[in-house]
Amino acid sequence: MTPLRHSLLQPRLLSLAIHRRLLAAAVVAMPLLAVMPVQAEEAVQSFQIAAGPLDTALNQLGQHAGILLSYRPDMTAGLQSSGLQGSYSAAAALRVLLQGSGLVAVQTGNNAFTLQPAPKTDGDDLLLPAVSITGQGVSTGGDVLPDTYAGGYVAKGGRLGVLGEQEAANVPFSVVGYTDRLIRDQQAETLAAVLDNDASVVSGFGYGNYAEKFVIRGFELNGEDVSYGGLYGVLPRQIVSTNIAERVELFKGANAFLNGVSPTGTGIGGTVNIEPKHAGDEPLPRLQLDYGNGAQTGLSADISRRFGAEQQFGVRVNALQREGDTAIDNESRRTTLASVGLDYRGERFNTSLDVGYQKQDVDAGRSVVYAGTITKVPDAPDADTNYSPGWTESQMETTFALWRGEYQLTPEWTAYAALGGNKTQEVGQYASPTVNDDDGNATLLRLGVPYRAQSLSGNLGVRGNFVTGDISHQLNLGYSGFARRTNTAYTMAWPYAATNIYDPVDIAYQPTVFADGDWDDPHVRSRVRMDGVSLSDTLGFMDDRLLLTLGGRQQWLKSANYSYAGALEGDLYQESALSPVAGVVYKPWQHISVYANHIEGLQVGDTAPTSTGLDNAGAMLDPYISRQNEVGIKLDYEHIGGSVALFEITKPSASTDTASNRYATNGKQRNRGVEVSLYGEPLSGLVLNGSATWMDPKIIASTVESNIGKDAVGVPDYRLSLGAALQVAAVDGLQLNGRVIRTGAQYLDDANNLRVDPWTRLDLGASYRMRAYAQDLTWRLTVNNVLNENYWASATGGYLTQGAPREVRVSLATEF
């Protein structure tokens, strides 16, 4: 007979003889107890069990919870657990650890359980006995991804900086994660295409390049300020291919405490994190061929596998080559990507290493449009019109790496660390038209820029849980740091050349008239370093139904600007600031959370212009502190989730005060808004993913008195993103997708004289899964902007980004 395995925390209460009799009794009683449900223990404890072999996880649970757990070793052989973080009863903790294992725990006595195969229904679905989860508070963080809602498109949470991956229902913040499944089904090739699913985000282009820029809750987020596995300064700064993303996680709101100061100081209204891909429990061999109108052809591979006696080693490889003309006239793009994710899952130590390379070339890329001497916003040209000359181009190349590690010091305490960085090289020739009349006549100049950057970031800390009386604590103490150096130069052609955005002229390449710096070996232009120490505690009351999070991050900011010749300009900027956080979550019922928070944003102060004769020319201003207050309610069921949030964010700004002839912090923008979201599978076969945002973005302080009370530039007054996927019951394997995006009016200028019209876009798609030649095949068809609408998608930055034309993409993926 195969011996039983057991775990016992309290040996002082039981003699060895009693221990053996209990074990024998459990064996004899197993057939008689097959139908007994698990009874929940009243005591709730905090657990921090890392992902790894199920046998190891069960042993840790038994030791920590003080329970006797009996089972045969062969029952758990080769099984893995996703770990356990949070506060649970012993029975509830057992149920979570056993999810997906095909096993259930049956209570055989006080603090004694045995494992047995789970009973099955006619449909072979596992029936797990119900338990009562009396409390489930904020976990102590880590890298275990939250579960998804039914349908698999939206995750139940995301990464909250120093707090790690968290369930949204248990934290006083707004966070949502979009999964790899959604990315593949929508054929979303870049980060902007994924974030189109959230109404709180508007996408546009960067200033003078092809970088994707986002507006979250009415404030800008640069591509350079998107994190990777929680670290800034790792990803490519302009365009990020989604092939490296397991999750795209969107945090809405100010976040200086959680994430620290971002590299370029944006992200006041929210931030984005990409989680790397690592090997799952099952081998994955996926190849895909895709084709888009305009002759964009791509071939990609996503291959993973686990190794070792306990499957503790994992390898995942992603590769992509896509190139060809796009749906925009004369524009072509090329993407080359390779990444490798290695990970190790041990009993007490988990670690991962992600290394990647991405190169992107854009030829004759359509640019943004600037406003010159116009009295109204011009109508958008035909959607496929390209008003950039044929010689415009950009080559962007980034090598990046990220290492993370966790070590479980005790069952309650874990030490963690991460280190990442990148090396970027870019070179581009850019030309953007400036429209000067209602007929679309415009002028255009050439700007050439080589760009080099090196970044390094990291964090380390300790997190854990303990109890004082009736109050539970989730403590996190950490350090984070970021450093970056940039090198640039430029060449410029002058005077302007004439063109028209409705009937573009392919202007010849213009010879250089102005230049500065060394084109072949650019000198350093900026250095920045940011360090921060954070401390937070989440206190749990009433069996963790009431959670209070308090914390602060002390941050030190250092920055220096240099001339194109590499000489230091002005003084070295050295400032510090404290960024506090306070939040509360109350759960009146198991699936409902009511929350509120106060959290702040922090940015390096602007530099006074040196070419305007100001009394403080070249001086760097004190850091800008933005403040957010938010209240909301969240719904979190297995099949459906949603939220309603009300928020207010105030952000200071600087401008020239003509009365004092000084550049000073004298402006303020206040954004008030309401967000509503709903996602999941309310009916079998119907998956919803919808959200809506209404905004009131006002300038409440300015040196230009007439601008006070006007709407902020580039912030729509409302936005809707309503998506659904339907499994067609009559055709096995067929799914239909659809999405409608509606964006309200926004302004192009501070005086609100230039109004950008609202726009609507319809996206449709379908997928069909089949079996052929002993392989699983998936066909996908996606059509974005089905009606080929002509519209200005964004006025972000005070310039116009045109929406893409109708884009058709088909793909065939196989898992062999």
Structure description:
- The chain contains seven helices and 50 strands.
- With 816 residues, it is mostly beta strands.
- The strands form ten sheets. It has a 22-stranded antiparallel barrel.
Largest sheet: 22 strands, antiparallel, barrel
* General shape: globular
Helical content class: under 10%
Percent in strands:
over 45%
Structural class: mainly beta
Radius of gyration over all CA atoms, rounded:
28 Å
| Intertermini distance | 39 Å
Q: Low-confidence spans: pLDDT under 50, at least 5 residues?
A: 1-42, 120-140
Contiguous helical run count: 7
Average pLDDT figure? 88
SS elements, strand count: 50
Could you give a quick summary of the protein structure above?
By secondary structure, the chain is mostly beta strands. It is built from seven helices and 50 strands.
